[in-house]
Amino acid sequence: MKIIENPVSREELLNLAKERFGDLAKAVVDVSRGIMALGGELHADEEALLIDNGSKQSDLWGINLYPEKFEEDWIEFDSMINIRPSQGNRSRGVENSAVREKIKDIVEKLILPKL
């Protein structure tokens, strides 16, 4: 499990996915700091790593990345850590479209597109 602050290759993401789940890698994105954690078994593990590194829980959103897919199919907004009624998010998804776009922008900056 590690914090990603600088771009990594899609190949590196694919290797990480194969080590843990096969076709997907779990990630938690800090929408305030523009970083993410990868490689945990649970989104909660990555969330804890980022909080220990100075992130605020309210800025953290769990996603799944499918490195062999492209376009809209490769990011899945689904995590138990996303259930936050106090922030208006009542599902495992990310209901706020502006937050989803910010997550996409951060992921696209941190994961290089070529496979």
Distance between the termini: 21 Å
Question: Would you tell me the overall average pLDDT?
Answer: 95
Measured on Cα atoms, how large is the radius of gyration?
13 Å
- How many strand segments? 5
Main beta-sheet strand count, sense and barrel state: 5 strands, antiparallel
Portion of residues within helices: 25-40%
Low-confidence stretches: none
Strand order of the largest sheet: 1-3-2-4-5
3D shape: globular
Q: H/E series, N to C?
A: EHEEHEEH
Number of helices: 3
Structural class label: alpha+beta
Q: What would your notes on this structure say?
A:
By secondary structure, the protein is α+β, with helices and mostly antiparallel strands. The protein has one domain (2-110). The chain contains 3 helices and 5 strands. The chain has a 5-stranded antiparallel beta sheet, with helices on both faces. A hairpin with a 4-residue loop joins strand 2 and strand 3. The chain is globular. The model has no long low-confidence stretch (mean pLDDT 95).
